[in-house]
């Protein structure tokens, strides 16, 4: 009798192990569809300047976010890239962390969209023009160059999100049930060797 139970238990574990990767993939696709954001391009390479990251995300703002923007509430988008060195004997070692933030707001008096990036302001006539700047990043320097030959030991964890922590407190209260404010995507990529 105990042997039969042991066989049933091990069969369940084997089935769960076989099904787990497929369910994780389906969950990742469902979360992408649910959040409404897709990472269409992500590439990291080394050059003489250091480790450079290029990315492109595709998303549309929900009606809730657009209404908040039209009422003068500024929203913040954040991109974060962390260069990690893989270690078999311990957790991965963080070599560098880079963050870029965009603050987007509407100015009703001038009827323009204002986008603050790293302390610099730009003005746009259309919301779509401002979002195009947020959606793409090219040759973003995230770290110093890694020694040649050590590239296979390094990877980058990238995330892009609409930072709801920067919203005014009254708006943050009801966000737990609203999916319109849930814009986030994460990906991990291997570091490419130096290009000449």
How would you describe the overall organization of this protein?
Pfam families: DUF4390. Keywords: Signal. By secondary structure, this protein is an alpha+beta fold. It has two domains: 1-35; 39-190, no CATH class. Helix content is 29%, strand content 42%. The chain is built from four helices and nine strands. It has helices at 2-35, 63-70, 127-135, 169-173; strands spanning 37-47, 50-59, 75-85, 93-107, 112-117, 120-124, 136-143, 154-162, 184-190. The strands form two sheets. The chain has a six-stranded antiparallel β-sheet. The chain has a three-stranded antiparallel β-sheet with strand order 1-2-7. The longest helix is centred in the N-terminal third of the chain and has 34 residues, at 2-35. It starts with a helix and ends in a 6-residue tail after the last strand.
Descriptive labels:
six-stranded antiparallel β-sheet; 196 residues; alpha+beta; 4 helices
Short description:
This protein has 196 residues and is an alpha+beta fold.
